[in-house]
Amino acid sequence: MENDLPVIIIGAGISGLLLAQQLRQLNIPFQIFERDSSFTARGSGWGLTLHWSLPALRGLLPEHLLSRLRETYVDRGAVERGEDSTFPFFDLTTGERKGGVPQAGENQRIRVNRERLRRLLATDVDIQWGKSFKELSDYMTAVGALFEDGTEVRGRMLFGCDGNRSRVRREMFGTEKSANQSIPVTMFGFTMQVTAEQAAPIRALDPFFLQGTASANDVSLYTSHATLADASITVLQAPQSAEDVDQSYVYQVCISGSTMKEPFRSVAERTTRPKNDERIALIRNAAQSFAEPFRQFVSVISDGATVKQLDLDDWAFPNNRVATSTHTLVGDAAHAMTMFLGAGANHAIVDVLELKQMPTISQTSLESGSVDDAWLFLNKSRHANADASVVDIRALRRKVDWHIVPLMFGCYTMQFLDKVILNYAAVMGIQKDLHLVGNDFSNVATFLFVGLLCFEVPNVYFLQRVPAAKWLGLNVVLWGIATASGAAATSYRTLLVSRVFLGVFEATIGPSLLLIISQWYNKSEQAPRFSLFYCGLGFGQIIGGAISFAFQHVTPGAGLAGWRVMFVALGCLTIVIGLGTLLLVPDTPMQARWLTDAEKVALLKHVSVNRTGVQSTTFQPRQILGAFMDPQLYLMVLAVILLSVSSGVVTTYSATLIRNLGYVPKRAALMNMPSGVVSIFFTLLVGFGIRKQSNRWLWIIFCIIPAIIGGALMSFLPVSNRRGCLAGIYLVNAVVAPLPVLYAWTAANVSGSTKRAFAAAVVSGSFSVGNIIGPQTFQAKDAPNYRPAKLAVMGTQAGCAVVTIVLYGYYRWQNARRDRQRGKPQTGEAAFMSKEVWSTRTDQEDEDFRYSY
């Protein structure tokens, strides 16, 4: 299990050790690795000033370490005497004091020795020394750290605390983007041990710290009282008491200057670094411009002193910060800077405090297998994260549209045509050819939806285990075969069987499209895209009438009845579109060959606000049980059923109703074409209206009103009023538009991979229920006016309007409750890379989830 793995800390500096102490307090297993062989591997340490991080440090340290904090002071005796640094700044040429800061007690500012602080923080921490980090590895539920010695350690998360030249940073951003930016300054640093007498002139200026610049040549002096010592400078002794004022002092001294001016210009012009004796000569030469006591103090440097040449540089964290739940940077690795800024250690301490307050540290990690595949991809593609910020999201959206929308539109068009083909066959003689009597025709229409409904439940499992695009493409091919097979029907029973299989294979289109759209678009974009898909229904109505009209001209001498040829032709066209879907629609954005890695990351960031994930193949039965406890699902199902009753009437009987107005069959087919125009108009109006003004519930009611008016015209106008009745039939088609809105609403408001697949199947299945009920309202005894069916259209749509208002109220109440309890959910970069955003938790479990309405 992922929770059994340790947290990996790379680097045993201030941030790494302080983080280790926090993990100890939280009883979280960890391992900490340091490339050096010991605390003293790099020689003497240096001094640190802690100021704005002090409250954080005191809050983080356990009591037994906090009580020993004075052990780390560079001069405990001076603190006990009440002496304090004013951090004075001098003109080294004239000796004039130019400025400083107010004095402050140790409750506001302390000066500590870095090595001593590290040793204190290392108390009870098992550091693995001599382990040089090499590279990161990503696994399904873990992160791996590979070391130069060939060993690898896996953990639940990894923190790069490895300094301003961090190798973890290089792994996250790549060599080029992780490189520090050089500053044209050379610095020489060394430590020197002096007697109390030699130190007295400097201590008179400040007991802890001073710095300055020579106005003659801009050479800077940075000198820091490192420690009192009575041994070698590589072994710092315990703090001395206030009475031990006669001991010698060890100072850390830094001399720096611009490489664009003398005396250090020659350093920049060299192809090799100066040797140690040359560095000492440069320091002595630079000090000649200093006034006393600075010149005398620096001249004490011995010929055998070890002088280190420091390259000054810094690195700014990119705006699109990469901080994930498996690896991030802390301290100098995250915000490398020159020591002149005086904030490095302070940043490191506050970083640890912020991490401790994050759920990533303070709570156990998510269960294995409960994270979306998109999150795993994002962590593997960390090098592309920086490039994703420059991706034009509008251009990317258009690119996705051209690759996804046309084929999905084609699937919906063929789904409608293959379903409504029976409607057209009714005016082409299918009832006579197959000897359909009584309610046979209504039963054939109904049993398509019985097959569709029965297969919705198995769809839940397959959509969880198989990519939605692949499952959709396969089923489109199969329903094309079922459609073509209908041409071979010789009786009521054989036609019924072909229609049942058509329903079985069509069962996947609703839930598949619902899942596909949530992979590629955010919530505000889903409704217009689903509306574009759904325009296939209206387009099918338009061309369906023309197709029926064309195939009615197939003469008996052709060997096959016109309706049989129509079944074969549309079935073959469906197979072609299914193959196109199988081959051309990617399983997920991560598998899209026509997207660069940066575009994939940008797209995933774009859809991360959905909090519904992209794909997870882990089937979680508990989410199905949770769905049964979710009121929104019952309301959504009821709304779709009520709308679908009218949709079923439109799908199956519109041509029949037009023919009953006195039009001949060929004319009736053509007269049905404006129904498609009405469907497309309202579908696009609503879809793009929601994009501009996202009141989904209001747009649904907006479409229901003309549909109710259409139902009233159909019900109460006499048949002799052809124009009025035709207007009613056309207006009823406005009821088609709210269906894609309800589907997109489901996609936006249901999270959890298994629950979402279940909701998609159930909502699509409820469409089938409505379409089963709808045709059954057309009973043979009510012919030719079918008034009860027309009244059912009005009543069910009015009921849907009421349910929509209740659903809107439920969502508002839920959002308000969550805002009161949790506050506004996190957004931005941290949220985008958060494991919680990409978890497979349901909307009921994720209290940061907010419903759209």
UniProtKB/TrEMBL annotation:
Listed Acidic residues bias regions: 844-853
GO molecular function terms listed in the Swiss-Prot or TrEMBL record: FAD binding; oxidoreductase activity; transmembrane transporter activity
Compartments in which it is found: Membrane
PROSITE patterns for this protein: MFS
GO cellular component: membrane
Transmembrane segments: 444-464, 471-490, 496-518, 530-551, 563-585, 633-656, 668-690, 697-720, 726-745, 757-774, 794-811
Cross-referenced InterPro entries: FAD-bd, FAD/NAD-bd_sf, MFS, MFS_dom, MFS_trans_sf
Membrane topology (UniProt): Multi-pass membrane protein
Keyword Oxidoreductase recorded: yes
Region (Disordered): 834-853
Location (main, coarse): membrane
Statement: the UniProt record of this protein carries the keyword Aminoacyl-tRNA synthetase: no
Ranges where the Major facilitator superfamily (MFS) profile domain occurs: 404-816
Pfam family, one: FAD_binding_3
Keywords: FAD, Flavoprotein, Membrane, Oxidoreductase, Transmembrane, Transmembrane helix, Transport
Annotated family: Belongs to the major facilitator superfamily. Allantoate permease family.
PANTHER family listed in its UniProt record: PERMEASE-RELATED, THIAMINE PATHWAY TRANSPORTER THI73
This protein's name: Major facilitator superfamily (MFS) profile domain-containing protein
Lineage: Eukaryota, Fungi, Dikarya, Ascomycota, Pezizomycotina
